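Protein modeling request. Please complete all fields; requests missing the sequence field cannot be processed.
Requester role: graduate student
Desired output: 3D structure, token encoding
Chains: 1
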Amino acid sequence: MLQRYLLAAVVLINALELVRANLYTDGGKPHRILLDTDVDTDDFFALLYLLKLNRSEFELEAVTINTNAWTDAGHAVNQIYDILYMMDRDDIPVGMGGEGGITEAGDVLPDVGGYLPIVEQGNATAGGCRYRQAIPVGLGGRLDIDSNYGIRKAFLPQGSRRYSPFRQPTSQQVLNEKISAGPITIFIIGAHTNIGIFLMRNPHLKKNIQQIYVMGGGVRSKNPTGCCPNNASSSCQPRQCGNPGNLFTDYTSNPYGEFNIFGDPFAAYQVFHSGIPVTLVPLDATNTIPINENFFKAFEQNQHTYEAQYCFQSLKMARDTWFDDQFYTSYFMWDSFTSGVAVSIMRTLHNQNGENEFAEMEYMNITVVTSNEPYGINDGSNPFFDDRKVPKFNLEKEGVHSGHVQTGLRDPFCIVQNGRGRCKDGYTEEVTSSDAVRVLVATRAKPNPDSNSILDRAYFKSFLDVLNHPHQTGRFNFTMQFPHYKEVFYKPDLGTKRLGKPVVFDMDMSAGDFLALFYLLKVPVEIINLKAIIVSPIGWANAASIDIVYDLLHMMGRDDIPVGLGDVFAMNQSDPLFSAVGDCKYLKVIPHGNGGLLDSDTLYGLARDLPRSPRRYTAENSVKYGAPRDTDHPELRQPLALEIWESIVRTLDPGSKITILTSGPLTSLAKIIQNENNTRSVIQCL
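Delivered output (686 residues):
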């Protein structure tokens, strides 16, 4: 009898859920959603939040990847595939990249990959880093995001989907297919390149886009980070404190830009001025929902699903490696908060004023700044106008796009001596001119209505509840997918062998480098004794691809060979004021797409077939090596190239010399020679 009552209760609950869904959707059909993401840490928080929602209300139709911001294409797409596999959603198509370009005449060709902002996009996928250079490349930047601090490889299961050359659906293909199919809502939580290009090429499909929700920009915001405390001495110099933007690497030249909009201001302008209704969740709102200590502790105690565990472990590593002691006031709910606000608005039909559970809303008249006054100048900074009789895309000669376009971090035009930077590229500015667009804007996160809760924001509770709900939960992590997997180190017994010439291999991880590495490993150790590998991630692959080296060595039974990570910038290319960022003066000649960085970072898709090494890049670190604090496992820290070199030199027999074989940029070798007085005495040949 009890079983019958329980069954009846379950049926009733399901029926009520269905009725609720019918009330909140159009004719009982779920809201179709497409997510465009740059796969930063908070981006997959947003993705997992959406995947957990009731599919009778919200159906995530596709994911497209923005490839010119916080992650690199090959690493980003495989992480998305693995997350979807964990969540049993291999049915969701993923679009990334493309080899198309934009002609000099301004014709947008099919399948533009979005590797470059529109202002830099030519006929190929190689190009500069005008805006992207504001994003750190190594620690705390693309290296950590590409690898998710080393957690991605240790935690996520691996399915059959992967990047594969010429088989990977492009972003524009997926956008075209899903938007052509009927009414859809788009969430943009990265740079706007993919969507901007789509709208420029397919204006006839705008009618199918019901709404665009954007995380980005700052309208009336005042940055709460980088401020001097009340009891600070007079020597304290405020940094980005009070600025509308959040470019913590570039506030001296551009205090107005926010990373997502700054990544491609012209593309964002196309989105905002498309005529499609836009709802913006800017820094104004996200600055009011920092990850505070109470939320962190509550999250730590509520990890009842694999997706919750993955998010918390990622958040914890972000906190543990944060560059100062202000994490709880500097790290905010950006993209996941946007997803929460958006779906809460969408739950109410004909919701013109954006009423929702999580944020206060207000209509504002804004535009996206793409160039700086005075307009109509020709100073070599603006490819749309410079040396052109007819502006690209037939833009107005004296219009808002015709001014100076910021060229880099230390653009002299932007820097005002002893004053606030003057460049506004990527600023979502409130204006009264004819260029204004009426946009629904989130202004503040709502407090938790439960005053007895330690969670002070309404969205905090929703986020934890949704992620921990047993409905539509992740199936397994890597160790549960492969329960018999063990982290075994394979090291040959070389004690009885007469070892040959000691060699250090310096590689930039191109496909040819891996062929050379195979060859070196196959040569008998009595002839060549491969002592170490130095990785120089300033050529044909990005730094996180060091994991391929570890996996290859594991397959060959050589887990004994140490691997050191070299500098992420060529010499004299890192910024003199903030060394984590810098220029791509030489790297810009290497294609981002097919035949370039994408294929090297994935070894043409074959890296997924390698056995998984117990060694991998991790962001684990310690005070001993200059970190602000010890992480949980500092012994797993990734050694640097110079450290590996020094350890090899210390093990040499008196009078012995090392042969260095280099097949990439010579940056690491130059640093070794610069830093060691007796280097030449131990190097036999190069």
